[in-house]
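[Automated response] Your request has been received and processed.

Submitted sequence:
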Amino acid sequence: MLDGFLQQIYFGNRIIDYLIALGIFLLLLLVINISKKFLIKILHSFAQKSTTKIDDNFVEAFVNKIKPFVNLLYFGAFYLGFSQLKIPSSLEKIVNISFIALLIFFGVRFVLSIFSYFMENYWIKKESNATRITAIRGVETFLRIVIWVIALIVLLDNLGIQVSALVAGLGIGGIAVALAAQNLLGDLFSYFIIFFDHPFEIGDFIIIDNFLGTIESIGIKTTRIRSLGGEEIIFSNTDLVNSRLRNYKRMRKRRVLFKFAVIYQTTLEKLKEIPAIVTEIIQQINGATLDRVHFAAFGDFSLDFEVVYYVNSSDYNRYMDVQQEIYFRIKEEFEKRGIEFAYPTQTLFLEKENTEDQTVT
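Generated structure:
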């Protein structure tokens, strides 16, 4: 009697066929859950043996992100379990399409979840600049859109839709859009160059040609600079990428060269004292490192000296403070020793001629 019941046919399949399909499905579910628990146990054991916290975070993230992949396995188990049943071709086509769609959907979600984990924990956490964090999230969103578009094209191709014509049309349309928005796209790509290469950041003091100022914001199309005069200067990102710029914020120390001159009437003894005087002054200034002091040239109206030293800071105000202190002390020491600075002068030598008076009659 039981055998007769199992042999009864409903919708083209025997009851025993349905039971076998259900058994295969339940068996696969059991295998999937046991495998999942076993894998998680191995990962936890590995993380406990490791001394880094990164492994613990990765295991925790993997456990949280594995759900889309497990759902995909569940649907695969259902598909394998009931694939042996005889079903109408129209229903079989729907099942196959559903399987492909869910395979792509859950597969993409799993890949994106792992991608987001590495973005959040290995890139964004290392950034302290809020603007760069916002830009990274923008890049992440852009990549997500690209991945979903590719997944959609793959799905349409598997559904039997001819995507080659669609892709060709998108390519032609993309070329037309690129030509129409060439400058905009150029600035966009330049923005990515600035973002990844970061030749400058917000707060850096830069000089571009005859313009100088501090970076205030870096946008997708333009970068804004606040000049020393207070006005805002706006550059396109392409102009900045293609220009030679000086970034003074990243200067570790500043080289300073200055000259001074004394009068020709200065004695040789005092001339020889001048390098020692300047050397001692600069060595006493905190934050300054002397390079050289030399009697450099016989000028048109003076004896010229040349001094080179380094300010161990990139701050411009600090450089001006050091330079001012050096000038004060040189002036003070020269006054004490009777050494006079030169300035443009001319000495005229007049020759007196003796002439005899002549009387005209």
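Summary generated for your ticket: The domain at 254-337 is CATH 3.30.70.100 (Alpha-Beta Plaits). The chain has a mean pLDDT of 79.
If you did not submit this request, please reply to this message.
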